[in-house]
Please model this.
Amino acid sequence: MGELRGTHVPVLLERCLELLAPALDRAERTVHVDATLGLGGHAEAVLEAHPRTVLVGLDRDTEALAHARARLARFADRIHLEHAVYDELPDVLDRLGYPAVDGILFDLGVSSLQLDAPDRGFAYAQDAPLDMRMDQTRGVTAEEVVNTYSHPELARVLRVYGEEKFATRIASAIVRERERARITSSARLAELVRESIPAPARRTGGHPAKRTFQALRIEVNKELAALEAALPAALDRLTVGGRMVVLSYHSLEDRLTKAALADRVRSTGPVDLPVELPGTGPTFRLLSRGAELPNEVEVAANPRAASVRLRAAERLDPTAEQHRRTDRERYRRRVRAMHQPGTGSAARRPAPGDGTGTDEEGEGHDD
Ligand SMILES: C[S@@+](CC[C@H](N)C(=O)[O-])C[C@H]1O[C@@H](n2cnc3c(N)ncnc32)[C@H](O)[C@@H]1O
Model:
C-alpha cells in the first residue's frame, strides 16, 4: 500500500455527524453502516464520536479498504470492513449477525484516492490506462466499453449518464478513431472529446471531457443499478429511530435518492380518511428540507463538496403519538388543498417536492 496521494476531507462531516448522532447515541450498543467507506474519514469521525457504536464498512475498492483498515486500526475491536458492492449490504449484515442497524451513510461516487491515482483512469486531467473500475478485481474496463460498444450504445451512455448534449458527435468520433487505432489512454479520449464538440461549447461548463468521463465511470461500475437496489434494501434494515444520510454528487444519484425516500415518507392509504389505516402510514420522515447544499465555507475548504446534495431520513415509530399528529396535520393540509379554487374536488396524493408533500416535512436545516 503506497502513501496516500493528496488529502481527503470528508464532505459535510459536521452535518453528517449531527444527523446521525440521535440514532447512534440512544442505546448501549448501536450499529452504523458506512456503505462507501473510502478512506474512512466519515467512519473515523463516527467511531470517535460514538464509543459504543460498532461500524460495518463496505467498499468495492480493495485499495480503499486497505487504507481505511490502517486508518481505523485503533478501533479494531468494533469494526467490520467488507469488500462488497453496497447492494450486497443485506447479505453482509446477515453474515455478521446484525438484522437491523441504527445509522447508514452513503457518500457516493469516487474517492480522492481513485481520482488522484495515476493508474486508475478516472481523471481526464492525467494520462492513464482507461480502466475506471472501482473494483479492479472484476468487471469490464472503460477501455472495453469505448472500443466495443456500438455507436448507439455509446451515445446512450454519454447522453443518459453524462447528460452530454453532444453525445452523438462524441460517439461518432470514438467510433472513427477506434477504426484507426484502439483507444487505450485517458488523455487520448479526453482529447477526442475536446475535438468533437463545437469550439464555443469548449469554453463553458468546465472541462469538455468531464461529462464523458462521468458517464463511462457510471457505466463501467453499473453505479445507478447498484444504488437503486441498495437504497431500499438499506432503509429496510434501519431500526425505529434509525437514520440514513446520503451524499450525492450528480443529479442522477440525487434523483434516485429522492425517489427512494419519497416512497417511504408518503402514506399509501386513501387520502380522504382522517386517520391512517393500519400499515398504510409513512414509515420514515425526512430530516432534510429538499436537498441540502454545502455552504461557501465548506466549498472553499473542500472543492469536492461543491456539487454535493445531502438527503436524510429517520424511521418512524408506527405507534408514536408524534407520528399520529403528523398524519392528522397532513390530512388537514390535504383537505385544505382540495378546497382551494382550481384544485377541483379530486384528492391528489402529494408528490415529493411539490410543496404539499414530503420535502416540507423535514427538520428544515438550511445550512
Ligand atoms: C466518496 S468516497 C467515500 C469517502 C469516505 N466517506 C471518506 O470519508 O473517506 C466513495 C467510496 O465509495 C466506494 N463505492 C462507490 N460505489 C460503491 C458501491 N456500489 N459499493 C461499494 N462501494 C462503492 C468507492 O470505491 C469509494 O471508495
